[in-house]
From TrEMBL:
<dbReference type="InterPro" id="IPR011684">
    <property type="entry name" value="NAB"/>
</dbReference>
<dbReference type="Pfam" id="PF07765">
    <property type="entry name" value="KIP1"/>
</dbReference>
<feature type="domain" description="NAB">
    <location>
        <begin position="13"/>
        <end position="93"/>
    </location>
</feature>
<dbReference type="InterPro" id="IPR051861">
    <property type="entry name" value="NET_actin-binding_domain"/>
</dbReference>
<dbReference type="GO" id="GO:0005886">
    <property type="term" value="C:plasma membrane"/>
</dbReference>
<feature type="region of interest" description="Disordered">
    <location>
        <begin position="110"/>
        <end position="141"/>
    </location>
</feature>
<feature type="coiled-coil region">
    <location>
        <begin position="766"/>
        <end position="793"/>
    </location>
</feature>
<feature type="region of interest" description="Disordered">
    <location>
        <begin position="156"/>
        <end position="191"/>
    </location>
</feature>
<dbReference type="GO" id="GO:0051015">
    <property type="term" value="F:actin filament binding"/>
</dbReference>
<feature type="coiled-coil region">
    <location>
        <begin position="696"/>
        <end position="730"/>
    </location>
</feature>
<comment type="similarity">
    <text>Belongs to the NET family.</text>
</comment>
<protein>
    <submittedName>
        <fullName>Protein NETWORKED 1D</fullName>
    </submittedName>
</protein>
<feature type="coiled-coil region">
    <location>
        <begin position="494"/>
        <end position="636"/>
    </location>
</feature>
<keyword id="KW-0175">Coiled coil</keyword>
<feature type="region of interest" description="Disordered">
    <location>
        <begin position="228"/>
        <end position="248"/>
    </location>
</feature>
Amino acid sequence: MTTVKHSDSIGMYSWWWNSHISPKNSKWLQENLTDMDIKVKQMIKLIEEDADSFARRAEMYYKKRPELMKLVEEFYRAYRAMAERYDHATGVIRQAHRTMAEAFPNQVPPVFADESPGGSVTEVDPCSPLTPPPLHGLSEPDELQKDAFAEGRARKSLNFDDTEEKEQSVQNNGGPDLSDEVPSESERVSKAEVEISNLKNALTRLEAEKEAGLLEYQQSLERLSNLEREVSRAQEDSQGVNERASQAEAEVLTLKDALAKLEAEREANIDRYQQCLEKINNLEYNITHALKDAGELNERATKAEIEVKALKKDLIKVEAEKKDALTRYKQCTETISNLEQTLSNAEERARKMTERAEKAETELETLKLVVLELTKDKEAAALQYQQYLETISRLENKLARAQEEAQSLHSEIDNGAAKLKGAEERCSLLERTNQSLHTEFESLVQKMGDQSQELTEKQKELGRLWTSIQEERLRFMEAETAFHTLQHLHSQSQEELRSLATELQNRAQNLQDIETRNHSLEAELQRVKDENKGLNELNISSAMSIENLQGEILSLRVTIAKLEAEVELRVDQRNALQQEIYCLKQELNDFNKRYRDMTGQLEFVGLNLENFASSVMELQDENRKLKDICERDRDEKLALLEKLKIMEKLIEKNTLFENSLSDMNVELESVRGRVKILEEYCRSLLGEKSTLAAEKDTVISQLKIATENLEKLSEKNNFLENSLFDANAKLKGFGVKLTNLENSCLLLGDEKSGLITQTDGLISQLDVSRKKFEDLEKRYQGLEEKYLSLEKERESTFFEVEELQKSLEAEKAEHTSFVQLNETRVTTMESQIHFLQVENLCRKKEYEEELDKAMSAQVENFILRKCAQDLEEKNLSLSLQCWKLLEATILSEKLSSELELANSKKQMEMKSLFDQITILRTGLYQMSRTLEIDATHGYDDMSKQDQSVLDRVYGRLRDMQNSLLTLWMKISSS
């Protein structure tokens, strides 16, 4: 890993690793360069350390800042030592040149412009990126001792001490009287040759250093060209990024339109689903009515069967035992009354079931209302989501504007750099012209000595100006780093936009899946409609057949009633005949007894029987008459038997009708099976509804994620705005310094014109130049004060950032409190769910009690069957109907329980949505309170009131933004 980092650092800082020049002539320069190399490596190592978060980077910045400041101070000391050494060397060379010109006026040329201080300044230019300006006071004794030691070594190496002593003696004794002080020309020539040799050596060394500086200058120019290329590439990349952002915004708009369309289709599908549910409820209601009618018909048919059987038994047993028939008829009537009571109980239960069904229908209507409210809430959530998307687009526009401002700042920085280069060139030209003027006025030695001192002061001031230029370059580098951070943030925002695009694609796919499901549901609903049509037709045909059967049953009842009346009449006639026959038998017996008595009396009297022949004949006639009467009675009995046969035929027809009724019952059972299938389908639809609710929850969670992303983007935008504000402040400082440099260049031009035009008034011009230098010092002090004020503003901005962090922590604490409130609400909801479960258990117990009652009723029916063996078939049919009713009750209770569960779930969802709305509303009102906005407007609708508060908060934020922009413009203009 260390080798990889070393290779990366070599690739990143190639401008430093490729800029080493090994000087062979100067050992001091070589030592200074090695020391500089070590310090630069340390600085690169500090800069290369990276962190994962902004907070970590800030900590590293504040921790490593003192070390970086130390290294910068050491760089400045080294640069200053080099500058002082160079200044001293140029002064010594100038003095040597003067002495040579005085000694050999004909041999030595008067102009010495190549080794001038202006040229040295321009040659030292390439090293400027490696020597940052001072930021604190220099007060370390070790470094000062090193600088003094280095200056001593330089003087020993160049042997300038003798020349200085000679120059001082020449200046003290006077330059023009050389013949008095020099004894002979040979000594003078030898001394001059020695000095010339020393000067030549020094010139060779300086030329070598000059070549090294030129090479470094060329390398710095190449680096600047590379940087300009990189900047142009970065601009092109930013343009491409802007185009991609515009494309992404267009895609987001298209996706929004698609989402709106899909939501409209989804609402239409929901309406269709509700219509289908209503149709299913109507079908269930019709089926229940049909079942009730079929039950009534079955009851009537069973009653008719019982009555027919009773009549059969009565007719068969009329001749034998009338009393037994009457008693059995009484028993049958009692059993019928008992059965009627059971039927009345069953009807009461059916009424209860209908009441429960009505309650379930009312609950369904309430649930439908709840679903409509939920859809309204969903639409409101969708509107909020669209508003969030609009805010995201606004933030993206702000980011684009910030990038444009950064590009404009970059162009301004480039213009400033170009202006700095032009100012440097002007300064170099002015310095060269000043040197030419100095060479022209070498005759005035005393005045030029004063002027040389002033020129040294000017050079020092130029060195200060050069340090200020270096400071501006460092600030330029900081601005570049800020621009890189902005590019990094822009790339992060692009990645977030891509992630949002992928999420939108996923949502589009989910919506497509929902559409396919809706199409399948529509196809199934069409199938169900077709089946319902078939069932309706079957119900209509069954109702027609039932009506026909009812008419036939009514006609049968009428005929049965007529037959019963006739049977009663015949029974009465038969009873009367039997009584008459009984009376006749008694009379015959009486007659026989009388006849016996008579014969006995006759025999006793001794009379003949022939006398009684006539009487016997009369008796026989009477007997014949009685026989005729008996035959008539027999004929009547035969007619009654024929009528009974007709009744049997009617009974057979009734059996046929019963078979048809059983077939209808089978058809009804098939219809019930289809109804069960429809109920299962409804359950599946309810399951899909729950999945849709889950999808709604996911959409709400995605909205929360989108709000969090918006908060992150707003934080990043705040950071970018702060960085842009700092960059603007730095650019303003650059502009002020550029204006100062231009003013100084203009002043130097004025000085040049004054030196050319006014050669006689040098003293007065020197006074003017001193005044100008004092003005420059004042301006420099003003610039220092501005720099201090800028640092104070920077500290204030850091303080504001800390306050914002504190406010963020407070908001986090509020968020935790909201989470705790939500947890408490969840606990309360769990308690409510437990209470509902307890109620469900109670209802289950009641249901079990009702089942026990039903079982007891079945036991009573079984006892009644034993009591009434003749009515066993009717009891069986009643028991079957009871079982069917029980199954229907079980199904209805299951449906009611499922509806109650769905109702509880929807109430839970409504409560959670209401809690979220209240939380958002409280946050909105807190924002309005912090912004001092009146939230009470007297609206009846809370949504309108919330919308008005949102509009006011947005307007207040826009006003604050505009006021901040105006303040910033005022500050920038000032």
